[in-house]
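seq:
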Amino acid sequence: MIEKIQKESSSNLNKYNQILLDMNPQEMLLWGYKKFDNQFAITTSFGIQSSVLLNIVSKSSLQKKIKIFWIDTGYLPPETYQYAEKLINYLSLEVEVLQSELSPARMESLYGKLWETNKRSDLDKYHELRKIKPLEKGLEKNNIKCWASGVRSSQTEVRNKMRLLAIIRQRLSLRPLLKMTNKDIFYYMQENNLPAHPLFKKGYSTVGDWHSSEPDGVNKQGRATRFGGVKQECGIHTNN
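struct:
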């Protein structure tokens, strides 16, 4: 089934992207749901700007229809876990948590603290174990053909080249917020009275795991503060 979807999507990708260009984020989510029904989902990290995509879902007719997956690595800052609970209650969300089959302690016993070596290969292994595999297992279990995320083109050089719809690991990936700027995000959160992540007030413009996130500084800002500067992408949103 996945192979069939991949083939069909490849041939129609340009057409789909052309259609999506004229849509706002909510319309893109509606498009995804109408096209894929219960085989459509969104992912969230409960990071600094995650409330925007979640709020769009909660305000639309799609609330409690679209599956929401949260990839919990087991290494998130306490503030992120607290923020997740706050948003889940505030927006009345139903969220399925995806986690690695390896507990943090077991992974560290087998592979060590992969984030401490400053080697890209070790970070890649870490992200494969704690993010990519749990996500793919969850998508496969629920027979998801298309999933949406909150990535934006201004975040990294890789994301600046992304299209609204692409094929990632044999599934369609939709990016409803791709063209939103930092100002767009800020004003949307203000206008919709969305609570800010606690670490935003401490200078973080992006946050993932506690060991691989830093507040913005003079020399490093945005995604450059992640993963000790070794890389900017965790691999979830890319094919390599």
